[in-house]
Amino acid sequence: MDTAKLAEAIKLVVDESKVTKAEPKEGLRYNKGKMDLTQLSPVAQACESLVYMFGAIKYKKNNWKNFKKDEQEAFDEFMGCTLRHIDAIRRGEFFDRDSKQPHAAHAVWNLNRILDLYYYGNDAHGKDGKDLYHQPLKHELPEIPTVENFERLYGVTPQVLKDKAQGKV
């Protein structure tokens, strides 16, 4: 996929003109302790979505949810695919030959399936027939880091961590 086509696909996913940006004194928002999803790359999300869409055509939509494997086999399958795509990048091949999408997007897609496997298990349709993302989590999500709980969660203050990263400690 050339850069112009990728840019076009990203425009479909993220239309900045439709995003309302509030002035700091415009109103109250209670977002402390909530995940900041603005830190996720729109380009990476678009690329991963294109990988998903390619797979939906090549195999069938949501085909990956129908694995009849135990959790270890499913994990091994997703990890094997992840590592093959990473290996292709290491060899200098940026785009997958079949999908024409970045190998990194394929690797991320597979890593996200590993997260799904951990948090939801391998029963994609659940015992009650509900879709995977409507199932209760098998494991709780990690606590959201804040300035107030950072030292408790990580055993170090944010400043000490910054100093270490800069080689000051």
Written account of the structure:
The protein has six helices and no strands. Helices cover 47% and strands 0% of the residues. The longest helix has 20 residues, at 71-90. It has two domains: 3-31 and 41-138, no CATH class; 144-169, no CATH class. The mean pLDDT is 82. It starts with a helix and ends with a helix. With 169 residues, the protein is mainly α.
Main traits of this protein?
169 residues; mainly alpha; 2 domains; 6 helices
Total domains: 2
Low-confidence stretches: none
- Shape type: globular
Mean pLDDT: 82
Calculate Rg over CA atoms: 20 Å
Give the strand tally. Answer: 0
- Put simply, the count of helices is 6
Helix-strand pattern: HHHHHH
The helix content is 40-55%
C-alpha termini separation: 45 Å
Proportion in β-strands: under 5%
| Largest sheet composition | none
Broad structural category: mainly alpha
